[in-house]
Amino acid sequence: MSRAYLYFIITAIFWGANFHFAKHMLQSVNFIEAGFWRYLFGIIPLLIVVAKEVPKREEIRENIKGILLVGVIGIFGFNIFFFLGLVNSLAINGALIISLTPAATIFFSSIILKTRLQKNQIIGALISLFGVFFLLLKGELTEFFNFSFSWSDVLFLIAVALFGLQNVWIKIHNNKLSNKDFTLLTNVVCLLCFALVLPFVGTSPFKSLSPTFWQAAIGIGFFGTAIAYLLWNKGIQLTSANKAGIFINVVPLSAACISLVLGESIQLYHLVSGIFIIIGVLVTIGIKLRIE
Fold first, then answer.
1. Are 68 and 187 in contact (CB under 8 A)?
2. Burial, 170: exposed, middle or buried (Cβ in 10 Å; 0-12, 13-18, 19+)?
């Protein structure tokens, strides 16, 4: 069980870095092209991993529903709203809003998987939810009744819902194929979706792309895609979607630490909201670990 938690933590750290990799990429290309390069560089190491054991056509056909659900709606859909939200938002804002994923995962898991909700899960999710609202209100709780979501906030919230669904679908469908094959195939489907849309939005000339862009593209592809999805999917396979979703709360810590290193300003309300989110995850995990 502890091995799965380690997988989740490593993945969440890499996904925290993704917000910064993506921000660098979006300075040079549109969000569709950024997604295309992310998954192209992500699939290359995955192909190397499964080179000797390529999934058979019959196996793909038998599992096509799960592959398409996770690849098209879960991964591609999530990335569309993820990149769109980042266009006009700070990386730390997106990381904290994505921390609502545990609540979304618990919600969809209870509906689709009929998972029984524990009291500590509900309490922990509510504490984390308060932390995210504190972020959206920029620490001004008196502005609650005057608050309106920004466009970027709404896009991130849609991404959260799709991520929650993705976690549930992985638990349902990532059991007939090997984890490596399932991860490769779902990422290939996502890449194909980006490739189909790319001609309609145009591409940037190679010569105009800086070394910083390519470094970010390779980083988000290798660490934030290939390794991250392999570990995340394996962890869900070993435990449950609910437990995986909880570890998304490590993402804002990773993003915040990287922000400090990069010199990006962090406000007091970022820190306070992050504390509430982490308290939420401790309430959820701490009680569950003692029960188990």
1. no
2. buried
Distances (CA, A) of 224 to 55, 58, 158, 216: 23, 30, 20, 10
Give me the amino acid identity at 168.
V
**What is the pLDDT, as a whole number, of residue 287?**
47
In the chain, what are the domain boundaries? Answer: 2-291
Q: In this structure, what token pair is assigned to residue 210?
A: 């800086």
Q: Could you report the per-residue pLDDT of 7-55, keeping only the tens digit for each?
A: 988 998 898 888 789 888 988 998 899 999 999 999 999 998 887 777 7
What is the DSSP secondary-structure string of 36-60? HHHHHHHHHHHHHHTTTSPPPHHHH
Q: Cα separation of 81 and 158, whole Å? A: 7
Q: What is the largest CA-CA distance in the chain?
A: 60
DSSP 8-state class, residue 227? I
Short-list 57, 37, 36, 61, CA closest to 193: 36
Q: Are 189 and 42 in contact (CB under 8 A)?
A: no
pTM metric for this prediction = 0.81
Is residue 128 within 8 Å of 281, Cβ to Cβ? yes
Q: Which amino acid is residue 138, in one-letter code?
A: K
